[in-house]
Amino acid sequence: MIEQPTDPDRPNLVVIGGGFAGLAFCQNCKVPTRPNAPAPEIILIDKQNHHLFQPLLYQVAMAGLAATEIAAPLRAVLGKRQDITCLMDEATSIDPVNKKVVMGDREIAYDYLVLAAGGRTSYFGNDHWEKHAPGLKTLHDALRIRRRVLTAFEKAETILDTAEQERLMTIVVVGGGPTGVELAGAMGELVQKVFHRDFRRIDVRTARVILIESNERLLKVYPEELSASAQRQLEQLGVEVRLGVRVSNVHDTHVELNDGTSIQTRNVLWGAGVAASPLTAAFADSAELDRGGRIKVNPDLSVPGHPEVFAVGDLVNLTTKDGDPVPGVAPAALQMGKHVAKLVEHEFKHGKQPPEAREAFEYWDKGSMATIGRKRAVAWVGKLKISGFFAWVAWLGIHLMFLVTFRNKVSVLVQWCYSYLAFRRGARIIIPKNDDKPDQPGVRD
User: Is 305 helix (H, G, I), strand (E, B) or coil?
Assistant: First the structure.
């Protein structure tokens, strides 16, 4: 094992993950230098070199935005901070006893660890479905989905087999949460408003977008009236909504449902489940993990049994004072990152404290929003419940505000204005899987 070269006298604040929570910690943690002591170093480890604005991933998947418009290089975002080192590497395990993070054949010691590794797509024990039903967590996932969907319609344009055409032009979205609703809405809009002008030999009006949700309503954490509104708006876009049914198996050519029916399709998009990073398993001896692998943290966000380790973002299981779970959304992750930054700063100034003496994290719910398409969305902020055009405008403004860099904001705004006025999707480019040969339509990764 190779030790990562660091100053042994310099305190290390190691952050795993450059998402919303990890980036918020790095941006807000400004640890004071102690007299006659080396300045602490913040080491950010991420297997990607960019921060990704995940709420807009579905726009990349549905050819509404280019990948570069929702991502920003971590080194550029944090470039002015001389106390922060960015390492493009993957944390493969954590040794909490010796306080080390392992990265393949290298390891690095920490004085404080901020675990912000996020989540991954969960197939509820059926991981073999992934090759037929990609999830949506990374830019690679989004480009993969876009390539599959666009390639399927290109192949449908060139073949004569009617049954295969129908399979290629049927898109099944699994999961009626925000990701599934946004994917289905954007896909319905793509078929209705864009593809009908692109293709000549196929009747795109026969294409089907089917959204499957095991619960009796969409967006189950939203008020019932907004769930009903979301369903109506989806159906206006031609999306078939099937409630109260569950996927029992996924194949290359069809999907089986638990009601005994099946859907012939070449395109399955998975938005039904999220599990925590497997790194949380390192703390299973001292902390309780829920079914999704999330850590049940202390009120201050520290990991039980390890006061020097904080867990933030999607891999946290925590409830509010009212007993409601803190949702795995960007505003919650940002607040967690800022809270831990404040705690660490305080301890560098005043000395370490036990978890019970630290300030508890309090989540400020800024509301929930889901977009369904052009001029279609639902929003729930406190007692305010809105849907349709005004919810869409609010969603657009808030997402622009949260984009990391000014360049991203300008780029996204220009692209959205173009799409809105012309009903065009400028990112409808099929990117091959590798440099050797392009995707073969209908062939899986």
Answer: coil
